[in-house]
Hints:
This protein is α/β, with parallel strands linked by helices. Helices cover 33% and strands 23% of the residues. A hairpin with a 4-residue loop joins strand 3 and strand 4 (80-85).
Amino acid sequence: MKNSYQAFKQNVESAQRSIRSQFGDSIEQAVILGSGLSGLELNGFDKVGDIEYQQIDGLPQSTAPSHKGLLELVSNGTKTIALCSGRQHLYEGYSAQEVCTMIYALGQLGTNSLVVTNAAGALNPNYRPGDVMLINDHINFTGQNPVIGQAEDFGVRFPDMSTAYSKTLSGSAFSAAEKNGTSLHSGIYIGVTGPSLETSAERRMFRTLGADAVGMSTVLEVIAANHIGMDVLGLSAITNLALGDANQQPDTIEEVLANASLAGQKIKSILETVLAQN
């Protein structure tokens, strides 16, 4: 464990040095773009640079479908935002720390707030594909945690997670949705490892636990972000019904990506306002 932690620290240092060498300006905020959400363009922000993940030393590569593997840097003249088109997942064979390498590297570069987006299945029967859910809390059902084995190089050993998602950013998201006429749910996201989708029994259990949506990402990144003191906003693109009832239908990646794109337009309208104001 000690050797793997030292390797992780070195990878974080390599990644932040690599990003800084290719883009020397400060990066105030970051957005992690989930499945079907890559290629997000924000009105009022102009591209000032992009870096392929392959050009970032120490960063694990993204192999998931629709994840471009590109760090796009945009600015409105006041601040710079990193749009991370693609992420790493446990189901790709990466460790919890490897999944969070980008988060820690951005933290070393001065990024102080993070928006996480994802594609998620609806456990809540009131949700429909194409909807958007603001994540007000999460359940980590992966059995893993990026802080395990760490010293206190990046943050305290026992980071508090009682308010993992910023109330200020969440309030701004609701205000933006109301202003734009966009319906926005608020619920609990449960993170699982994948890559197999959940059984119907598991989906019913997750709903009993209090979760409203389920997915294979996000929770580890949010733990890492809280560990290093970032403010976090979470938004889920609801891509499929995961009710686990008698009418449960098989899910396809094509359906997931199509509905993620639909929800992505709603997320875009929310983020343009939130990122301009915060």
